[in-house]
Amino acid sequence: MTLVSGWGRFPVVDSELLRPRSFEAVGEAVGTAGAVARGNGRAYGDAAIGASRTVAMTGFDRVRSFDPATGRLRLEAGVLLSDLIDTFGPRGFLPFVVPGTRFVSVGGAIAADVHGKNHHCEGGFGRYVDSILLRTGQGDTIEVSREQNSDAFFATIGGMGLTGVILEATMRLRRVETGWIRERVISASDLDAAMRALDAGDSATYSVAWIDCATRGNDLGRALIYLGEHARTDELADGADRFPAGKNPGLAVPVDLPSMTLNRYSIRAFNELYYRMGVRRAGGSHVVSLYPYFFPLDSVGAWNRIYGRRGFLQHQCVLPEAGARDVLADILDRVSKRGDASFLAVLKKLGQGDGILSFPLPGYTLALDFPLKGDILNFLDEIDRLVVAAGGRLYLAKDARQSRATFEAGYPALQRFNAIRKSLDPAGHIRSKLSQRLFDEV
């Protein structure tokens, strides 16, 4: 047995960790109850930890075929988005959708139906997946798509690996001229100004806001909004390479930092500095590399160790547009009063998700990080009640602790998903720690 956790390092679970080298071996690994696939371990909680057996898929990292005329790509599920960007970026192609880290596998991106800074106008990762080769818990290997086995296809997108193991996928890449982003920074003095800026930025391909969670009163929710478009070749500085080199993290957090490192004073000082640096860049347009724009935290290796040995929790909710402002203000005010406010707070707009259990719905999503200490679990239960009352829900790929009642209230299509899951796996072989907590019969 091996101790396994997600990126948040909570919970830590004993699991039999298998690394199969063939699709046949994958079938054997999920042939008994309690197995689930795992990509590169970037789900924050317990979604990629098997109830008894965890099947690591990163060994399946081959590209099967690529058509430059259409941007269509066939590849194995263990390929990382970083590999796609580094390989196909210089050839003028990028994934349509990327999350906040490039170190996720394609299989994991499909299972979580990850969203990026462009969901409000271009949707999630699953929208650009044409077909999936799926190994079910029943032992079948089937091709699923919008036209073939469509129920299984839409249950697999955003289904957190519970419909079976994703072996391969066919997806589409976006054609781009460069690997640079034309960025515009807008400073917002409070939450209302931040939301107005995001609304005004609906026509931008990419939009995201960093929220200062340490502020209160008239400054509550002050923010920096980052709008972006793919830069053209004629917008690059003289002598700039058309595609910037991707760098591995130059720095890494070498040890677990003491829990006292993140406190009201250090976070307030960091946020003040970050905001003032952003204000200096506001108003103009700047051309920046895609790497810091999309993946700012990837420049620091093992940044999850900042939160200490016990780990951290991310709370990411989405709220329907109507009434979202008051709920967001309530959440931010409560966070600020706690004194251990998140310094990695992100606000974005989302559109409708494509999978049956996809997280996004039209509205605003707020992501907050908290060190695992004190009464944080009780505090987050309070926030959950606000989210549920507003008709919102939590992101399963980031969750490690929500209650079954919160989950069921937020995902009205759960009954349909469960029926499809059972048809693919009647014996219940595919099971994760997340499914035990939220889905499976008790």
Task: Write a structural description.
The chain is of the alpha+beta class and 442 residues long. The chain contains 13 helices and 20 strands. It has helices spanning 23-29, 81-88, 106-112, 119-122, 150-156, 191-200, 264-281, 290-294, 324-338, 376-389, 404-410, 414-424, 433-438; strands at residues 2-4, 13-18, 35-38, 53-56, 63-67, 72-76, 93-95, 129-135, 141-145, 165-175, 180-188, 206-211, 223-230, 251-252, 285-289, 300-301, 312-320, 346-350, 363-371, 393-394. The strands form four sheets. The protein has an eight-stranded antiparallel sheet with strand order 15-11-13-12-18-19-17-20. Strands 5, 6, 7, 8, 9 and 10 form a six-stranded antiparallel sheet that branches. Strand 5 and strand 6 form a beta hairpin. The chain starts with a strand and ends with a helix.
**What does the average pLDDT come to?**
94
Structural category is alpha+beta
**What spatial form do the alpha-carbon principal axes imply?**
globular
Uncertain ranges: none
Strand content: 15-25%
Biggest sheet, strands in spatial order?
15-11-13-12-18-19-17-20
Helix content: 25-40%
Number of helical stretches of at least 4 residues: 13
Rg, rounded, reads 21 Å
Largest sheet: 8 strands, antiparallel
